[in-house]
């Protein structure tokens, strides 16, 4: 069984609609695809409606923005209840903070680059959350950078003077919220040093494990072999499962659907523990 549990649609920072994502998942030979847009569940229904036509099962999820002592961490929540008040309140607060942060960054960038807030809104027309990828797309459209990666390596980097922080959940509290909502939490790319200079310490993951963390994402293109081994050893020490995923974003990133996969036994655990089921063809 080929399972790619971590992808994004245009409802956050991907470029495909949820229905297009399902069709492309079928073309990539996947049996199950996880839709995990940032801090939103807005793509779930469209993706579910496409399941019978695509012939690919849908694993419903969300990628939650977290931060511990100023260090960013993303947490994947699978099969949580869509109507859970606590989780939706956290998502709404994160989206508001992300939108405000984006506006402040554009104000700074506009002093040196040909970009306006209207340009960013044009790039994020289908999204329910506005983030740095949409600013990157606006900079690319203006001819300032050749692609998203170049923009992220430059003025959108966390070390850049244009960068502005936004509110994010504490990862331990996020694990508790996910479990209270019937979801199953998995830490996304926990040792991807290329994304930021500082990484979440092992002790935080130990606390997350006590709060219900189920697994760590090991096989991800942003983690080299040494970093993947670090993840494997950490998971072994904490008694956690191991996952893998593409983190597909459409044309926004080079990540290919199905380039890394989740082991079937981890999917079985998620199905056993989650409040929801797969949406099956």
Automatic annotation (TrEMBL):
Q: Which residues form a coiled coil?
A: none
**Which branch of life, at top level?**
Bacteria
Gene Ontology molecular-function annotations: 5'-3' DNA exonuclease activity; 5'-3' RNA exonuclease activity
UniProt domain Polymerase/histidinol phosphatase N-terminal: residue ranges? 3-68
**What SUPFAM superfamilies does the annotation carry?**
PHP domain-like
Q: Which SMART domains match?
A: POLIIIAc
Q: InterPro entries, per this entry?
A: PHP_dom, PHP_domain, Pol/His_phosphatase_N, Pol/histidinol_Pase-like
Mention any Pfam family matching this sequence: PHP
PANTHER family (alphabetical): EXONUCLEASE (PTHR42924), POLYMERASE_HISTIDINOL PHOSPHATASE N-TERMINAL DOMAIN-CONTAINING PROTEIN (PTHR42924:SF3)
**In its UniProt entry, what is this protein called?**
PHP domain-containing protein
């Amino acid at each position: 069984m080929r399972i790619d549990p971590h992808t994004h649609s245009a409802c956050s920072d991907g470029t495909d609609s949820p229905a297009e994502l399902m069709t492309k998942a079928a073309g990539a030979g996947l049996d199950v695809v996880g839709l995990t847009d940032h801090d939103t569940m807005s793509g779930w229904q469209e993706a579910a409606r496409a399941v019978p036509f695509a012939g690919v099962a849908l694993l419903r999820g969300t990628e939650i923005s977290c931060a511990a002592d100023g260090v960013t961490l993303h947490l994947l929540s699978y099969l949580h209840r869509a109507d859970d008040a606590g989780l939706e309140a956290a998502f709404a607060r994160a989206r508001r903070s992300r939108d405000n942060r984006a506006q402040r960054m554009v104000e700074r960038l506009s002093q040196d680059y040909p970009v306006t807030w209207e340009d960013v809104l044009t790039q994020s027309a289908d999204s329910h959350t506005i983030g740095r990828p949409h600013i990157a797309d606006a900079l690319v459209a203006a001819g300032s950078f050749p692609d998203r990666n170049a923009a992220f390596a430059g003025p959108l980097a966390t070390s850049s003077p244009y960068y502005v922080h936004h509110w994010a959940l504490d990862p331990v509290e996020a694990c508790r919220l996910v479990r209270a909502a019937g979801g199953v939490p998995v830490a996304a790319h926990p040792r991807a040093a290329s994304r930021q200079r500082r990484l979440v310490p092992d002790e935080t993951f130990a606390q997350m494990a006590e709060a219900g963390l189920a697994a760590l994402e090991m096989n991800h293109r942003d983690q080299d072999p040494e970093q993947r081994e670090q993840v494997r050893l950490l998971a072994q020490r904490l008694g956690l499962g191991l996952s893998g995923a593409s983190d597909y974003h459409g044309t926004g990133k080079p990540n290919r659907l199905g380039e890394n996969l989740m082991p079937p036994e981890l999917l079985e655990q998620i199905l056993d523990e989650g409040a929801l089921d797969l949406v099956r063809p």
